[in-house]
Structures are given as C-alpha cells and as structure tokens.
Specification:
single chain; alpha+beta
Length: about 450
C-alpha cells in the first residue's frame, strides 16, 4: 500500500568534498565555515518571539525572503517543546505514547498547519526536528504547483548544503556546546531530547523536505463525511475500531480519483490483488473506486493484519508495509511493540514511510478530531442518502435509467466504481452487482432486489 498524500522528496545522503589545502608548502587546517546570516536570522527570531514565552504551541515565524520564497522557522517555547513529548490521548482506543509523541506532533502539524505551498525541511531520522520551512504562497495563484515546487527546491538545496555543514561543525564541537553560534543553538535546542552522541552527524546526513497537507485535508473534509456513516457500518461489521476508517484520509484524503504508480486505487488505495480477493473487479466495474465498497476490503485486510500481529498499531503499519514485512520485523526484534520496531528494526524496505505510518495516522486522527476548530471555513456536508439494489440480471445503464427513473448524474455520482465506458452505454452491469440509487427512488423494480448495506 503506497501513500498518495504524504508526498516526500527525499534528499540523498550528503557527501562533502574534502577541504583543499590553503598553502602549497604545508597543509593548514581549514577555517571553520561561517554561518553569519543564519546566526543573524536566529538573533532576529529570538527578538521576535520574546512575547511568546508562555505559548504551549509551536508557531511558524517568518525569517526572510529569498526571491518569492519565504523562509520560516518553527518556534517552540520551552513549554511547547515539553508538551510535544507528552503522551496524548486521542480516543478511547488510540493514544500517542510518549515514545512517539514528537513524531505524532510533527505529522499533526503537517496536516493542520502547513499548506501545500509550504515545505518543511526536517530530519528523516528524527522527523520532529524542523530546521526551517519554505513558503511559495507569495508567488500567487498564477504560478502553478510544479513551478512552486521547483522554486522551493532551488532554495532548499542551497540551504540544505549550508545546514549540513553547520551540523558537521556542531558534531565536531559537540563536547562544548557553549561554543555554538546562535544558529547552532537554535537547532540544538530542538534536539535536546535526543541522547544519541552522533545526533548532529546523523542530522547532517538525513535532511529532507516534507510538503504540507492542510489544503488536501480541507478538501477531504468536503468529501469524507458523505461516505463515513456507511463506512463505519462496514468497519463495525468486521469488528474494526471505527477510528481506523480514517486511514482513507492518510491514503488519499478521500480523493476519489487517487491512483498510484504501483496500481493502488481508490480512497483506501487498494492494490489489485487485494481488490480481486475482496471486491468485484472486471470489465466495467472496479469496486476499489467506491469508497463504501472499498472500505469493506480495507476492513477485511486490517482484520487479517490484526489476527497476524495481535496489535492495532502493527496492523495499521502493515496496511502500508505489508503484514509479511511486519511479521519479519517482529521476529527480528522479538517484539510486538511499534516503538521497538521504529527504533530497532532496519530492514531494507522498512524506510521512512513505514516507520512513520502509524504516527502519521495518529496525527491525522487528532487533526480530524479537532477539525471544527482547525478548518472553520470548510462547509459541512451531509451523508449520502441512497438505497442499495442488487441486480437480478445483467442490465445496461439505459435500462437502469428507464426502470428506476434516475438520471445518469445520479448513477455516476452514487456509483463511482462504474467505468466511463459503461456509463456511456458501451456495456452492461453484471448480475449480482449492488447499485446505489437515490433513497426511495420511484420506478419499476422488476429486475432487482433490495440489498443490505454490507452485501
């Protein structure tokens, strides 16, 4: 299962070229690199944030502009930094434990604070450490997303190189942090909770960009509520905690057209093999495209994952990584604890996405729980009202429209799993297909029977 909305632009490990000798006759140690402008930014940030001393939340602060790209810092007071590491109860079933609370809070901000025009530079090894962020929203709506991405990457590549060198300098002087410059002190403060003696060296090699997701989540909030009441019934039917149904937001933010390069499709990003196992997939119909029908496959897959792992955190992680891979990680670590797997398992395919999938799910769950406050301008939408009808024989769209006196628009909007070819009249829906029709639709019923929601 591949993430479609958690869009990553992984930077390769940074290899610095050797410093050249500065004299022909003898080798001389190179002078430490200067980070004067970064230090100036840190001093200005400190002056700007004195009034935020009591804030219990981290706040993005503008530092400067580089062309049309704004450079921001995420300022956290001591109180906010401490709160980020505390256990956070989201629901009766799900809590972000202290050990991954900082990862959880990073993803919570990706979903609720940072927009698609903003990219956060942070550390893949320690995701919660935000070095700085880049904002292309000032370039306006006339500049497309691709161009904005290129603009940000141009700035970020330059900044990454400078921060990498700064982290290496910090590693060399780590035994006397009193020698740190203002910029070094700014980033080291956000890493104080990390006890690894090589943390600055690791930081130099693991800088990466993460795009903000706030806009995508806002879009999903205009779609998801239409389907969630019916989806929750599917999850209850399978004995799955209904909160896990919100994986559709992590996978696609309820983008009905979501499709990955490896063939995963629909709001739950169901792979073809899983779809064929649990759903109808044949010419004219792909039930992965129907959020309600697809949720049945997602719930069954999660139920199997839980049976094979004995843990909801691992079952959810297996939705991304595969249950076979998670069982391999369990054997390698001798543990069923997600924190242990994150910290101690180094399987070649257990990379950034897999290590962060559960924390990102918890971040999404917390964001959705607080959506009324976080997204006050998103209009409320009602759940779809429909009846399920099982076809007792194969029928064309023209026959269905005539018998049920329903429009093509209603058929298309209520049944996104029907292909365009069939909707255009170039095919038949098969016998046994469950069709959604407007609630209490009037018309003939000679070729159908009422179907239960979970049939």
């Amino acid at each position: 299962m591949k993430l479609t909305l958690i869009k990553t632009m992984l930077f390769a490990g940074i290899t610095l070229s050797a410093q050249p000798a500065i004299a022909k006759a003898k080798k001389t140690a190179p002078a430490p690199p200067s980070f004067a402008d970064l230090d100036q930014d840190a001093v200005q940030l400190d002056a700007k944030t004195k009034s935020l001393a009591d804030s219990d939340e981290c706040v993005p602060m503008h530092l400067k502009n580089q062309g049309t790209v704004g450079i921001l810092a995420l300022h956290c007071t001591d109180k906010a930094l401490a709160a980020d590491g505390e256990e956070y109860e989201i629901s009766e079933t799900f809590t972000a434990p202290e050990e991954i609370a900082r990862r959880f809070n990073f993803w919570r901000r990706i979903y609720s604070v940072w927009s698609k025009d903003q990219y956060v530079m942070h550390l893949s090894q320690y995701p919660e450490v935000v070095v700085e962020a880049y904002d292309a929203s000032r370039s306006g709506k006339t500049v497309g997303d691709v161009r904005k991405e290129h603009m940000i990457k141009a700035v970020a590549e330059s900044q990454r190189d400078r921060y990498s060198k700064m982290f290496l300098q910090m590693h060399r002087t780590r035994n006397d942090e009193s020698r740190f410059s203002p910029a070094m002190k700014r980033v080291s403060r956000s890493m104080a909770h990390i006890k690894d003696g090589d943390k600055y060296l690791i930081a130099a090699r693991t800088l990466r960009l993460q795009r903000g997701q706030r806009d995508f989540i806002a879009s999903g909030l205009t779609v998801g509520p239409k389907y969630l009441p019916s989806i929750e019934l599917e999850f209850k039917e399978q004995g799955i905690p209904v909160e896990i149904s919100r994986l559709a937001y992590v996978e696609s933010s309820f983008n009905l057209a979501a499709y990955s390069k490896v063939g995963a499709s629909g709001v739950y990003q169901i792979m073809p093999a899983t779809g064929r196992q649990y759903l109808k997939m044949h010419s004219g119909v792909d039930e992965r495209q129907d959020p309600i029908k697809a949720s049945r496959a997602a719930a069954k897959l999660l139920k199997m994952n839980y049976a094979m792992t004995g843990s909801w955190p691992l079952a959810i992680t297996a939705y991304n990584h595969g249950v076979g891979g998670i069982r391999k990680a369990m054997r390698a670590t001798g543990s069923k604890d997600i924190v242990t797997l994150i910290n101690r398992y180094y399987g070649p395919s257990f990379g950034f996405a897999s290590k962060n999938f559960y924390a990102s799910y918890l971040g999404m769950l917390a964001t959705l729980k607080d959506s009324d406050r976080l997204f006050p301008d998103v209009p409320k939408v009602d759940a779809l009202a429909f009846d399920n009808v099982r076809l007792s024989k194969s029928l064309s769209i023209q026959m269905l429209r005539k018998q049920y006196k329903i429009s093509l628009t209603d058929i298309s909007s209520l049944n996104p799993d029907i292909s365009r070819a069939v909707l255009r009249g170039n095919g038949f829906l098969p016998k046994g297909y469950v069709l959604k029709v407007p609630a209490k639709a009037k018309g003939q019923n000679v070729a159908s029977e009422t179907a239960t929601p979970n049939s």
